[in-house]
Structure formats: structure tokens, C-alpha cells
Design a protein that fits this description.
five-stranded parallel β-sheet; alpha/beta; single chain; globular; Rossmann fold
Length: about 170
């Protein structure tokens, strides 16, 4: 079973995926630029300057990691790249909520947080279009869309878990 979680910056991808993987007792795959850099502040610039070979190899590794067993994958592109995903979830929240989350996570002031969140969103969208011809605003492929501003972590995990159980009934009898 593979669950792919995606969403814009500070939508809750990592938080929800970590909690969901614990709830389901599966691996959390998080092969992200954020984890790679260990510092979000230079993320947009890094994405803008990254070459295609690096991007494709990095993303290939994410797919390989997902093939190692049941998992929850929390990367921007996993729903598009992992063709055999059982469930694809798009997390979203209004910009002001994402900015507050980013401020708390990175300990930066509001103006810088908003500028950075928008820069990362823009840069990632352009990169995905450039390297894969993926438009991340086209969300029809997702099985679920969850507003994480209206649902706390536990409720969001419960919703996704229910969808997983429904799609993989043999696993949860």
C-alpha cells in the first residue's frame, strides 16, 4: 500500500505523513529538498538553480524508496511520479495559515515568511512544469483534498486512514 501526500509549502505534508505512517505502521518516505538542505530559507533559490539531471535522479530515488514496501510518501511530486500509488491526497490551507506555520517552524517574521512561502510555491511549480510538464494546479488525479486549516492532525489522519482502509479492505479485516 502506497499513500502519496502532496500540497503547497506549509500545508502539512510532513506533519500529516509522519502521523499517518505511525498510525498505519508503515514507513514514511520523505525524500525532499527541504530535508536534503536542512534549511528552508534557501529552498526557492536552490530549486531555481538545480539542473535536470539532479532533479530526475533525486525523484527517481523517491520512487525507488516507495518500492521498498508499504509507505506514506510526502513529497510534492510523489502523486505524479509514483504510478502505482493506492491513494493520493492533496493537502491545502489558506496562505495566511501557511505563513503562520512557516513563521513558527522557521522562526522568521511574517513578511519574510510570506515572501518565502510564495517563492517556494512559485519555484517548485515552475520546476515541475519545466522538468516533467506537470502543472501542480491540476488536481483531478487526487482521491482526497483536505483543508488542513479546518482539520487538526488527528482528524486529518483519521480521514486518510479511513480511505486507506476502504481501499485496502483485505489488509484491515
Amino acid at each position: 500500500m502506497k499513500v502519496c501526500i502532496s500540497g503547497l509549502t506549509a500545508s502539512g505534508k510532513t506533519t500529516i505523513s509522519e502521523a499517518l505512517s505511525k498510525e498505519l505502521g508503515v514507513t514514511h518516505v520523505q525524500n525532499s529538498y527541504k530535508a536534503y538542505l536542512r534549511d528552508n530559507r534557501g529552498l526557492a533559490d536552490f530549486i531555481d538553480k538545480t539542473d535536470e539531471d539532479f532533479v530526475r535522479e533525486f525523484d527517481k530515488r523517491t520512487v525507488e524508496m516507495s518500492n521498498e514496501g508499504d509507505c506514506v510518501v510526502s513529497t510534492w511530486l510523489s502523486p505524479w511520479l509514483i504510478k502505482d500509488a493506492d491513494l493520493r491526497v492533496w493537502l491545502y490551507a489558506p496562505l495566511d495559515i501557511r505563513v503562520k506555520r512557516y513563521m513558527a517552524r522557521e522562526n522568521v517574521e511574517k513578511e519574510r515568511a510570506e515572501r518565502t512561502v510564495l517563492e517556494i510555491d512559485r519555484s517548485a511549480a515552475q520546476s515541475f512544469k519545466k522538468f516533467y510538464n506537470i502543472d501542480i494546479s491540476e488536481l483531478e488525479m487526487f482521491d482526497m483534498h483536505i483543508n488542513t486549516a479546518r482539520s487538526d492532525v488527528q482528524d486529518t489522519v483519521a480521514l486518510i486512514s479511513l480511505a486507506v482502509m476502504k481501499s485496502d479492505k483485505s489488509r484491515f479485516r
